[in-house]
Amino acid sequence: MDDDRPDVLLTGLLFYDLVLTGLDRPPTPGEEIWTAGMGCGPGGIANLAVAASRFGLRTSLATVFGDDFYGAYCQEVLAGQEGVDLSLSRRADGWPTPVTVALALPHALGSARAGGTPVHDRALVTHGHEPPYSQDALMGHPPEARTALVHIEAEPREWLAQAAANGTQIYADVGWDPTQQWSTDLLDQLALCHAFLPNEAEAMAYTRTDSAIAALGRLAELVPVAVVTRGGEGAVAVDQTTGEFAEVPALDIDVLDATGAGDVFGASFVAASLGGWPLEERLRFAVLAAGLSVRHHGGALAAPGWYGVDRWWRSLTDPELRRAYGFLSDRIPADVGPPVQYAPVTPPARQH
């Protein structure tokens, strides 16, 4: 029997991102700096949606679009260009789409090692207001889905427990705690989750440990699949359902902009998990996809998809990497789809 559920269910705040790259240094107050590098496109929760959809996953997104140019543009890109299901999303009259201007600063330029959360420096300025609809209002009674990718916060979302109860496997990450309290109460929500994918700093802070491996061990007691991304050191993971442990290195990547790389990692890990791959393959695949994304202007449209992975694999000559990623020859589908569309310098003019 065909499974017509969405592969991935998502909800969260969408942004219109404008990313400036090629800067030698940040500007000082009162100074104007010119740069030739710029890209724009959907950001925020759109990062996960596009990354998942480009790997052929049926992706359902519940978000809010403003009734402005930015909202209309992001909606067209997600639904029209990327094939994301927006039936759970809403357009809000009189509410402006949040807009973020990001400066990719010198530490992000040149060569860096890219894992789930590559080394980078960015300065961000966002204009926005509280959305008129909460995640719970958007979701209502969430539809059954194979997985949901969520960002857990201090205040639990009601829809999350409902989704877990109807059989949806929850893959969660978490953000930086600006209060520096790192309340362990947040980890109580892992009881609803199938997998948890924090970065190294977050994992150690929430578990009160002093290494990624120690944090991984603690998290493995709370959730079936635990992953800790380690930036320039790659990633480590344990899968209690299969008894597997894996540790993989990062890739040497020329980083243009790392915006959204962690989201690409998460979506790629889910894609490989739905395929039933061994843990080491899942982890290598996620590290690769995140690494490929940082070579382009960030946000949703940097995600490589199968097309980008296939191009990398076909051009790969390094014998060690050919051995490490040899599994791709059996995993890449025969039809990798059309070339992905990366972030334009400016959005195209509307057609009348």
Give a short overview.
By secondary structure, the chain is an alpha/beta fold. It has 11 helices and 16 strands.
Task: Count all strands and give the number.
Answer: 16
Mean pLDDT: 91
Which stretches are poorly predicted, pLDDT < 50 over at least 5 residues? 107-120
Rg from Cα: 19 Å
Number of helices: 11
Shape: globular
Separation of the first and last Cα atoms: 44 Å
For the largest sheet, list the strands in their spatial order.
4-1-10-11-12-13-14-15
Largest sheet: 8 strands, mixed
H/E element order: EEEHEEHEEEEHEHEEHHEEEEHHHHH
Describe this structure in words.
- The protein has eleven helices and 16 strands.
- Helix content is 29%, strand content 22%.
- With 352 residues, it is an alpha/beta fold.
Main attributes?
352 residues, alpha/beta, eight-stranded mixed sheet, four-stranded mixed sheet, 11 helices, 22% strand, globular
Topology (elements, then pairings):
Blueprint: E1 8-11, E2 14-21, E3 37-44, H1 45-53, E4 59-62, E5 64-66, H2 69-81, E6 90-92, E7 99-104, E8 111-114, E9 122-127, H3 135-139, E10 147-152, H4 158-165, E11 169-174, E12 195-196, H5 200-207, H6 212-220, E13 225-229, E14 235-239, E15 244-248, E16 251-254, H7 261-274, H8 279-293, H9 305-315, H10 319-324, H11 328-331
Parallel strand pairs: 1-4, 1-10, 2-7, 5-6, 10-11, 11-12, 12-13
Antiparallel strand pairs: 2-3, 7-9, 8-16, 13-14, 14-15
